[in-house]
Design brief:
Elements: H1 12-24, H2 29-50, H3 52-66, H4 82-95
Helix pairs in contact: 1-2
Length: 109
Amino acid sequence: MAKTRISISLEQNQAERIKQHAERAGMDVSAYLVHAATRQMAESDAIEEQFAEVDALIARAEQVAEGLPVERDPEPAAELTEQERREVEEALGLVQGRDRQSRRPGHAA
């Protein structure tokens, strides 16, 4: 089979690291790069195959979604009453770990 030459450009330190790795693997740089690229392509192909059904499901869902009507934003909520505001602040305090006296549990005032 005829071979094709591909020229690549990279930083000097990258080239040196590739040469060192190729030597440790007992390969020339071309064989090392072909091996690395082939392995990466096989991994990518396997991942694409593994998720092909999910990708197809997403594509079908996106097509269906394109045909759905656009929802309008709901009417803005009315202002909270003072009582509602206090209840929200109290609930947030509980979530954030504050007791009713605005102290965090386990901490001195």
